[in-house]
Amino acid sequence: MIGPRGYRRLVGWKNWEIPRPGKEAVVGFVCVLAVSLLLHLGLVLLCKLFQPG
Amino acid sequence: MVDAVVLGAYFVIVITIGVVSSRRVKSMDDYYMGGRRFGKVMMTMYAFGAGTHADTAVGVVSQSYRLGMAGIWYQWLQIFNTPLYWLLAVVFRRARCLTTADLYEMRYGRSLGTLFGFMGVAINLSYMGLMLLGSGRLVEALSGHRVTLGWAIALMLGSFVFYALIGGLVATVWNDFFQGVLTIVMSFLLIPFVLNAIGGVSGFQQRVPNAGALFSLTSPGEIGLFWIISTAINQMFSLVAQPHIMSNMAAGKSELDNRIGFTAGVSLKRVCTVAWALVGVLALGLYQKTGVAPDHVFGALIHDLLPAGFAGLMVACIMASVMDNGAVYLITTSALFTRNLMRVVRKDAAGDRRELLISRIFSVVFAACSVALAYAFEDVPSGLRFLWGLTPLIGIAFWLGLWWRRANRYGAWASFLAASISWIIGVTAFGWSGNQALPKLIALNLGTGLVAGAVVSLLTPPEPEDRLDRFYVTINTPIGEELTLPTGAIVSEGAA
What we know:
The complex is a heterodimer of chains A (53) and B (496).
Chain A: H1 23-50
Chain B: H1 2-22, H2 28-33, H3 40-51, H4 54-67, H5 73-76, H6 78-94, H7 100-108, H8 110-142, H9 149-198, H10 200-207, H11 211-214, H12 225-239, H13 245-250, H14 255-282, H15 284-287, H16 297-305, H17 310-345, H18 352-376, H19 380-390, H20 392-403, H21 409-428, H22 434-459, H23 465-475, E1 483-484, E2 490-491
Antiparallel strand pairs in B: 1-2
Helix pairs in contact in B: 1-9, 1-17, 3-9, 3-14, 4-8, 4-14, 6-14, 7-8, 8-9, 8-16, 8-17, 8-18, 8-19, 9-10, 9-14, 9-17, 9-18, 12-20, 12-22, 17-18, 19-22, 20-21, 20-22, 21-22
């Protein structure tokens, strides 16, 4: 039985309770992802700097 | 002499924080969660400090010294998962639980809460043993082997038991703040000294013949793409099962404080990881021909290169790190013991004051057990690999039940047992150990655990609708809002 609830689900499949993310969740997720990618890029550039030639 | 003065001054500050904080501990929530009153900066430093201890730096430097920059993956892995932690932080906060075992109990019933209680104690014991080993090796190297591993461990043990007993989480978070700032500074301070000692980048390239290969992010035969992907996935199952994750993600004033604090703390740690890995590789320019053991490289660099006073500051930093991390492990383990395990033998509920006393006595016993484990690990990286096998065993049930309503207690038990048996078979029957075998071991553990959990859940009766409704409504409702079940019933926060 899945009746009305205080939050909205992302998908309507039975037995799945994935909540629809709010604005704070989406914006924050994208920002953290960007920081994460920048850190990776920085690491790759650092390795390039120390490689000969 | 200068080192001793610096060390003494630092300890006075840290102990003062502990004593002042102890005055604010009036309830279990204060002791375990610091009254959930920390802001963004404190939560960032708490997440950073709780995830960063001496064995973290020793492990990365040790692996980078052995494998090159590819050794960074020992700590860099979490960076893939960090965006996901932004979403997860609110789940832990909204759960309104004091321990992660409470969360398992809310989803699957009492037996899973008790299982997590036992696993949580085992996981924390292993983390503590590893931390004592890594920090002890560092102090050993920093003192030029004048302080032995045994004495270093005894000294650290005494300090963090005292710290956890007096202050609880408030003292720990404040200590994390100071220790965190110092760790960041010290992590980067070593780089110019090492570069100066080896004659800069060009000096390194002349001293080390395979300099180019050492700055590759993979290491042929040991750390490849499969290793990186499998261990990153493994970390997702591991993180949620770490007993201290509840306070790490939920002790903030608001959801935003928890989200920013945890993800910023995790990211900050990765920035420091770059410094450790770089120092580990550059150390080859100094020690390649001297035969310094990888676990001793970090300490040897500080001992040999930093001027008077800095070595003392570094020892102070390590001791502070061990004090507050040891305190976090003690606090979370005693919470698991008193809340989730003690009731197995004691049916009557102990009062708040009595529970606090029992919790503090248990902390002392637990700390003593962790010393034995410190000697059981061969070295820091092998200890880390052991933890990467142990922790996710109970983490599979978390992910199965987080979004899938059909996951039930039988499936959760099946996932734990199947993954555990696979792990034992992989290590003993197939002889899978070391870096090379790690991805296969992870694939086997997680694969069998997930399949067993899903299949058994589908073949057995689901959890009662009422329990499921309460769980999903609770983890999706911000603190302070009414918990309204699909039936229209309103649950009070205390009953959730």
